[in-house]
Amino acid sequence: MNPIELTLASPDDRQAIYRIRHDVYAKELRQHAPNTTEYLTDELDAHNEYIVAKRAGEVVGFISITPPDAPRYSIDKYLRRDDLSFALDRKVCELRILTVREQHRGTELGLLLMFAALRWAETNAITRIIAIGRRGLLPLYKRIGFTLIEKRIVAGAVEFEGMTATTEELRRKLSTDAPLGAIVARGLRRMAWHLPFSFEQPPPACVHGGEFFKAIGEDLQSLERRAEVISADVLDAWFPPAPSVIEKLNRELPWLLQTSPPVSASGLD
Known about the structure:
Blueprint: E1 4-8, H1 11-28, E2 49-55, E3 58-66, E4 92-100, H2 109-123, E5 128-134, H3 138-144, E6 147-155, E7 158-166, H4 167-173, H5 179-189, E8 192-193, H6 213-216, H7 243-251, H8 253-257
Parallel strand pairs: 1-8, 4-5
Antiparallel strand pairs: 1-2, 2-3, 3-4, 5-7, 6-7
């Protein structure tokens, strides 16, 4: 059997997504009225990203991501931003329309699509996710790490809830040593990951220099704390400066403190 592929949606995939959205959300769930085109799309589709699951070229599931630079979120139709306990800033994205074709429901596919969306968010420096989830799927969303915004939303014959989670909370629930993370790991072994970012969370970047001052105090008022902090900045020397350098700097210290540093300090080596 062909493995399921996870990838970003192509233009052709989007056409399939809009047809599936009509089948599921208009015909099956009656959230929207059926239409003669048998397509279901909206203005956010000009700005969002779809992650799709495909088998043998056929779309069998997808999730939509509305990025921070979109003109609005879907949740704006139902909630006032002033009523939220967090800001919808440049580090927030919205997940919506998590959809799995009928023959794949009850499998881990929905969870894997959520995990792929999390990796998209982490890759794009997103720290918080908002979502509108069907009430029937709330147990899954809560297990993943979402909390309710306490706003019930009715659209057609379907009831939804506003939800939010930080990417840190989702990462903790989906880590490999957590029960859901183990399910994700097993599912990934059976799938083909063709997304333009790794399914593994990259290690923290190596800091080029000066980052350890966040631990010491960037106001320079507690320099004595340097004895408590181990610096791993890559530019820091592991040996003390030459005594002659310290002597010369001390002799000219008042002048050095009021002038610009040299472009090259080759004379100090």
